[in-house]
Amino acid sequence: MYSSYIKSIEFFVPYNKVRNDPESKLTKKIGIHSRHIAGEDELASDLACEAARKLFDSNVCKPEDIDFLLFCTQSPDHYLPTTACLIQDRMGLPTSCGALDINLGCSGFVYGLSLAKGLIETGTAKNVLLITADTYSKFIHPKDYSVTELFGDGSAATLITRCERPHSSVGPFEFGTDGSGGKNLIVPAGGMRERQTTDSLMEQQDDKGNIRSRVNLYMNGYKIFKFASKEVTSCVRKFLQQNNETITDYDYFVFHQANEHMMKALREKLEIPKDKFSIQLREYGNTVSSTIPIALYHESRDRKIKRGDKLMLVGFGVGYSWSVCSVIW
């Protein structure tokens, strides 16, 4: 019987740093003071390779040790080929390595952990490299103020590996999906359902003064908040009940770093102590699938979480999609 655990995390953000107005009501509400934005020719795969390179440079493993690469992104280089295959070649991973893309957003890291756990604990792989990377800035119109100050670009590389412990340090998991909410966080045009045309590139202004075209990201913030408040809290409570646990059984909680207003509401609704709840978005914003691993990196570095701590990880967002898991650090 194989077990799995998170061995190491590294992250990378673009060097271009954009600051939000620290005095604005929005900044104070969302708690995001700066974001890192990818350059015109800087893609999610570039961020991914930088994060992976930092992981290998830390000497926790070598490229040839990787048996499987999972790449979570919603901003791939191409429709095809699979971006994970391109990263495999660029990073010098062995050709015996499996590689696949996961098109998932803010719940993607937890979903990726579950896939890594399955690969390892079935004996398929010994070392799984889970990379999360997104460049949502490329979907955002600069005059759509409903999203411009929220999202930042970034990546994280997480090594999940096999161990001889009697019980896995990763899992169990709980998942949820409600595709009826897909329209509330979407880039409407540019895929096969609605091809990019001259008409889809036409900019329009909504009733709040935000400007976007159909190839830009659209978010209904009110409905996203309402969804998270209902489904995320319900999923966490179900997860605890199924595992005969309570909030007090956990040492620390790392939720998807959407924005501080939403996270505060979730924390208070679930009655999670403030000193056990991660807030790590001030300097990075919402980096989509990378928010949880970036937060884990900082909380571990700052000794907020320590070896042996029991953590709850919660992802939620675009899809709608949500996920909960426990991890022994």
TrEMBL record:
This is Ketoacyl-ACP synthase III. SUPFAM superfamilies: Thiolase-like. NCBIfam families: PRK09352.1. It holds the Pfam family ACP_syn_III_C. The keyword Acyltransferase applies. Gene3D superfamilies: 3.40.47.10. Keywords: Acyltransferase, Transferase. InterPro entries: ACP_syn_III_C, ACP_syn_III_N, Thiolase-like. CDD domains: KAS_III. Residues 100-179 form the Beta-ketoacyl-[acyl-carrier-protein] synthase III N-terminal domain. GO terms for molecular function: 3-oxoacyl-[acyl-carrier-protein] synthase activity. PANTHER family: 3-OXOACYL-[ACYL-CARRIER-PROTEIN] SYNTHASE 3, BETA-KETOACYL-[ACYL-CARRIER-PROTEIN] SYNTHASE III. GO terms for biological process: fatty acid biosynthetic process; secondary metabolite biosynthetic process.
